[in-house]
Amino acid sequence: MSVLSVSGLGKTFGGLKAVANVDLEVERGEMHGLIGANGAGKTTLLHLIYGRIRPDRGSIHFNGTDVTLLPVTARARMGMGLVFQIISVFDGLSVNENLLLGALPKDSTRSDSVDQIEVEKVIELVDLGAVRDRSAGKLGHGEKQRLEMGMVLLTRPTLLLLDEPTSGMTQAESRRTAGLLQTLRSEGAIDAAIVVEHNIEFIRLVADRVTVMHRGTVLAGGPIDEVQNDPAVQASFLGRLH
Ligand SMILES: Nc1ncnc2c1ncn2[C@@H]1O[C@H](COP(=O)(O)OP(=O)(O)OP(=O)(O)O)[C@@H](O)[C@H]1O
Ligand SMILES: [Mg+2]
To answer: How many whole angstroms from 39 Cα to the centroid of ligand 2?
Structure first.
């Protein structure tokens, strides 16, 4: 069974088909890259999957369950986690405090709460041990992004959705983030991930397969090396992949 199965998904804004008839399968253990030019519909697709917006048509199955009409809270409870582009950490609190606070159960049905032991594990994963007592406002951009990721990880997602996780990062920070995603997978902390990125070097490091979007539709799919030789993909990216 796929972790995620998207079928015939569509979303129109006004007259604009932001996402049109998209099929997408993500298997257990898979890191799936989502690429495409600006306005191709990548963020809209991610938000449809997470439930921040409702599709006009099509379906979304998560671990075999139809979640098409379920709200974000239900999908999060079932194991979806979205790492936003916008940083939502509390600048006045330390790294450790942010993690403890951000990890508070978001709904009353969850009886288990996150404790310091789990926070320690995540601090190690996102490599913030050296700055754990520093206030978040004093962190560098890459460190803040890793803190944001840590806060999402503490909600124990099994499917991690990331929208341009390396935007604003240096090349070294991007590589570190790629390493973190690989660790999450190899340690079985997550079942799968979907990564939206313009940074093709990063995609090359983390993604087993990619889906290329163009004006709301799927233009191509497969391993990045195959996809980048597709003439239609090259035309859509205007040679940006090389
Ligand atoms: N809430 C909205 N209302 C109206 N139009 C929208 C809305 N959200 C997205 N769009 C439009 O839908 C299209 C797809 O947008 P989307 O943000 O999904 O693209 P994207 O692939 O993430 O682009 P980028 O790489 O620039 O982030 C764009 O034309 C955008 O202007
Ligand atoms: Mg986007």
So the answer is: 7
Residue 7 to residue 89: CA distance in whole angstroms: 34
Instruction: State whether the Cα torsion 32-84-13-52 is positive or negative.
Output: positive
CA distance 58 to 23: 9
CA distance 92 to 139: 11
The finding on whether 40 has its CB within 6 A of some atom of ligand 1 is: yes
Q: Does domain 1-79+157-171+180-242 fall into CATH 2.130.10.10?
A: no
Residue 46 CA, closest ligand 1 atom number = 18
Q: Summarize pLDDT for 58-107 with one digit per residue, the tens.
A: 999 999 999 999 999 999 999 999 997 667 789 999 999 999 887 665 55
Termini Cα distance of the chain: 35
Decide: 99 and 118 in contact? Cβ < 8 Å: no
pTM above 0.85, yes or no: yes
| Ranges of each domain in the chain | 1-79+157-171+180-242, 83-156
